Amino acid sequence: VRQSYPSKSLIDNGVVCAYGSDFPVNDAYGLSGIQVAMTRRHVKMDLTYELFKDIPAAAPEECVSLKEALQAHTIHPAYQAHLEDVTGSIEVGKSAELVVLDSDIENVPVEQIQDIKILETVFRGKTVFKK
Length: 131
Prior knowledge:
alpha+beta; 3 strands; 5 helices; 11% strand; three-stranded antiparallel beta sheet; globular
């Protein structure tokens, strides 16, 4: 377990880490993935949360920063798919794909990132979901 997902070590050594979901093995909700990357702990929406909620993070030195977790969910998967010139970041000329959150992810306690709600989803410049 201590050697599983050594994200911080990989990132610190120049590896471009791209995160995703193994849905239905784990949930497809990206915000909980960001929290897991930052804490290396189960989130409340995880079916096994109650079993592991009091167990400390395995290899806490492998926790990543918010910036690293966001990059691993956005620009890095685009890079992995050779689409970094098309998507993965908000820039003029790129396909506008983004979400609007109900909270400032930079100021929410890390344990509450999983609770942030998505208010709007924009895909290719068009709103495809609005709460």
